[in-house]
Amino acid sequence: MSEQIFTLPDLGEGLEEAEVVRWLVAEGDQVRLNQPLVEVLTAKTNVEIPSPFEGVVRKFHAGEGEVVPVGGNLVTFELGAATEEAPKVLVGYGVKTDASAAKRRPRLRPPDPVGAAPSGRPQPATGQPEGTQSLDERIPVRGTRRIIAQHMTASWTQIPHVTSFLTLDATELEAFRRELAANTTTQRAAVSPLPVVVRALVEVCREFPKLNSSFSAETEEIILKRVYHVGIAAETDDGLLVPVIRDVDAKGIMTIAREIAEVVAAARERRATPHQLTGSTITVTNTGTFGAEFGTPIINAPEAAILALGVIEPRALIVDGEIQIRPATTLSLSFDHRVLDGAEAGRAFLALRDLLMDRERLRSLPRD
Amino acid sequence: MTGVAEATEPFRIVAPDGRANERLVHRLGLDDDRLRQLYRFLRLARGADREAAALQLQGHLAVYGPLLGQEAAQVGSAFALGEEDFVFPAYRELGVALVRGLDLVRYLYGWKGILHGSSPDPRSDRFALNTVPVSSHILHAVGWAMGARLDRKRACAIAYFGDGATSEGDFHEGCNFASVFQAPVIFFCQNNQYAISVPLRRQTGAPIHRKAEAYGFPGVWVDGNDVLAVYHVTREAVERARSDYTPTLIEAMTYRVDPHSTADDPSRYRTREEEASWQRLDPIERYRRFLTATGLADEAFFEQVEEETQQLASTIRAGVTSLQPGPMSDLLDNVFAEMPATLASQRDEAISLAGAERESSEPAAR
Amino acid sequence: MPEITMVQALNSALRHCLREDDRVLVYGEDVGKLGGVFRVTDGLQAEFGEERVFDTPLAESAIVGTAVGLALAGWRPVPEIQFNAFAYPALNQIISHVAKYRSRSAGGVDMSIVIRMPTGGGIGAAEHHSESPESLFAHTAGLKIAAPSSPLDAFSLLVNAIHAPDPVIFMEPTIRYWSKESGELRTDGLPLGVARILRHGSHCTLIAWGSSVARCLEAAEAAEEDGVELEVLDLRTLVPLDLETLIGSVRKTGRAVVVQEAPLTAGFGAEIVARIMEEAFDALHAPAMRVAGYDIPYPPAMLEEQYLPSLERILVAADRVLRY
Q: Which domains does chain A have, with CATH numbers?
């Protein structure tokens, strides 16, 4: 026994439906092939449809007077022997409902912001512009790099950047670090300057909340964040990623150091979760790790500030009127000039430097 | 129509009640087997036609133009053709295709919507492609006949068309050319009384068979529902064409019992009485009575023909329902003998789109 | 508001014009007693009589040729060609006479004729029933071409066309005959020569007419899910072409895709693309593209879906111009 459903064909060049006028058999009847089955009324005429199968009429799917769309179910037959899959019946072409086809359709993306190629004319999507030599190497920018590139472009073009520089005498900072290292027993976290600077920065943000804010162009507001999630810029094979240490204000320096190590490793090994890579309210970048003295860091939009920590190395500084060799570095602070003006930024920056030069105050930061 | 002498009745051999003019039957030169064969073809033509009509109503054919009632006109005339003769159909000549030995499933490809045309090789079938633009094939028949004459062949062309076609310019140009060039062609009009809804009296102001006079060749009026009469006049026309290079216009009076197509509603333009009066003149009933009355056929024969008809219907059904179209790229391949580059690139697109369809329509792996 | 099909809208337009003007004649094969093979002329002969609404013999050249003569005799003929491809026997009359009479008479003679024909495919029909021959007519100076896409519009355009002093080829999208729309039938609706933006969008303009408009609207719906805004422009009239609306839209979006059922080469889309190049080149972010039928005779019924511009092909073209 097998069941076959007979659907309404298109009986006249683009018809969309027909009305069942009269069933010429009853449910349960045994019918012959081509026996008059049902009379339907189309927009053009009455048509008597002969039975497409020999078998038993199991169930009508439309009553007399009901309108059935072309392709809609008319009647289910029960056929004697198990038949092969019912041959595909021409149903008509005016009305097509193929939900699965809709799901398979090509997906679109909104166009990229229009930018001209160096020549000023849009370049073709594929292939080389005419006349160029093929000595150039072309590296496609895809995936993460592409997203980073887009993000940086947005930051740079939407936020008016100003960068300030301050020389930091790191004598006290280095001494503090040695104290920390000496005091670690069970933990083996490397105590680089970075976690100290991160914790110190958050202290300063409490006093100068605009450092830890965001400018909203749509609503024309400065949103002061009440949480302190610090992004740590990290170089990876996929490009610059910014894993995040959450709630730095509630954490001690050692914890921060450990977490920095963990999330940066995760980012480099491509196992960082989206949660670990998003949500920062201010960012720190350790340009010292690749030897730069100072730089002009790009703000991690939609934040309002980014601090770059340069390499700490011996420099000649003027201390008490004399030239002395001291460990020193340059701190670079880029800020959103819509949020902070120069004086405000300067005061915040000096506050940070003062903190980092004061061993007593460093000792009072939460340590664990 | 003053000043025009006309026959009052079309030529007939077998009357509707089955009684026949014995002398005329004898002159046909058909032996008993061939006389029975005619019945067989009539019955098979109807069976094949009914099956095709049912298949269309069941959604297995996109369109179909039925020939119900016109079997004798088609079978009788086709039976009179020789192997070398060439048929130019309009689009309703399944009966002619049957007699000429065409594969009927292949013939129905066009109606199914698989491929245009009834055959990939009209030349070997001696059967041209169906032509939807009415009357346009008449010129083709004349051209073929002109070509056959240049080759000094003893063969003729026959163009089948309806009463409506005689209003088209191509019919008149064809008749005129045939006359001027003395082309061996038969113009066979199945006058089934209607062109969709337009009745004969609104189609033409003069009897169709009389139009031949204007072109200088014989016009013959025949009872299209009398298979022997149709056979007779067609055979004469075949001889006339082959021997004398003279065309003939045959007007076979018949009736389109079914609607023009399933989209048509005859109740809007003709009466049930009219339809019933023509059903009394049914060609198959009439011929069966003749065979029975003359003892040429018995019940056993008729039963055997019924069985054969059932089988043919089943074969057509099985063939048509299992037909699937070939790839779209085939259509692009067959536009030119040498494909232009612009078409080649479209072909690539068609193939890749069809491939994507196929992939995504396959059931997902479990 | 009740729903009305395009067939009913066209029927109403013919009825309106037959009532309003004694000189209007409606004729062709099967239009009288039967009411037309698509019922567009249903009931008209009963209301207006056999002299004004009548059946003709099967002869398209004569149908159009006699329209020329009727126009000269002061009538306003609205002949029907039963299916698009059956216009071909009448091309000599259309191109040599209907199109040229005014010009050849230095403006002295109006050929106020509207030649109606079902156009386009997707209806599972026999050969020669599914053509889109608008290019042939567009290329013939002196002919106007209307291509409605929806019922209410079909009404206004047909009334407008019958009123026009110039000959109009009125191309009715067969596949949309049974489509429904609710609203008021207006004799003062948008006239010939005015295009209409059916859907606004900023990323790309889809340009279509007749049967392809619905498919473009589907594409725009789908694209919206992806955050892409496709503007859909219904040309409504091919000749005269509403350049202002067309160019305005393309300037706004900077991207254009023309969708046509007719085969690609030398189709009306080529004309549109040329105009866009001439008038809006500086505003383009990508070349204007066409989605069209392949350069083959219209395919058999079981293959026509693969031939007609599908939702997928329209989106693929949109993607190309968006990514350019």
A: 2-98 (2.40.50.100), 145-363 (3.30.559.10)
